[in-house]
Amino acid sequence: MSQINKNSPKHCAKQGLNLDKIFKRFFYALSTFLLSLLALAILIWFILRPSKPEFTLKEIDIYQLNLTAPHVLNSSIQVTLVTKNPNQKVGVYYDQLQAYATYRGEKITVGSSLPPFYQGHEDSNVLSASLMGSWVPVSSSFGYQVGRDQLAGKMVLGFKLTGLLRWKVGSWVSGRYRFNVDCVALLPFGPNAASGPLISKQGSQCSTSL
Residue 5 needs a FRET pair 20 to 30 A away by CA distance; which of 21, 105, 165, 172 works? Predict the structure, then answer.
């Protein structure tokens, strides 16, 4: 007569306990592995210490800056910007770039989108933006300030660039960080300025904030 093996409830409970231990060990091993990867990424980040990209305003051309009504402005401005990645081992992805011009703190053009791009180690790129403003509302003192600048023979124009950047180290890519670039251009602006475009080719360093 063959012997029939029959597991007792106590034996089954012991088997369930073993499965529970295996699950816990797997969970701890997975957690340890993920934490090690995170610690390695943080360590690499602090060792490399990526520096902020550098921006320089190379040239700015004003083709139109006219008050067509007491508080309405039409403008056409071309801006050339040079950006450099100063990092030797960190690349930079640029996304959602928007550029616009300002005068005495007022936004005088609508936002212009620039295409996203990747910048390698210590690479430089030239960015060009056509900034347009059609029937843009301005303050009541705008015309007076422009007249004063024309008498003084110079105009200070601002240029702003906003967007998102991602750092790239090897195959690892960080999350997105918002950045802001502020540039200032000093242009000659005399009584004969209406005879042609205002052009400034004096390069000026821009400030970058993350």
Answer: 21
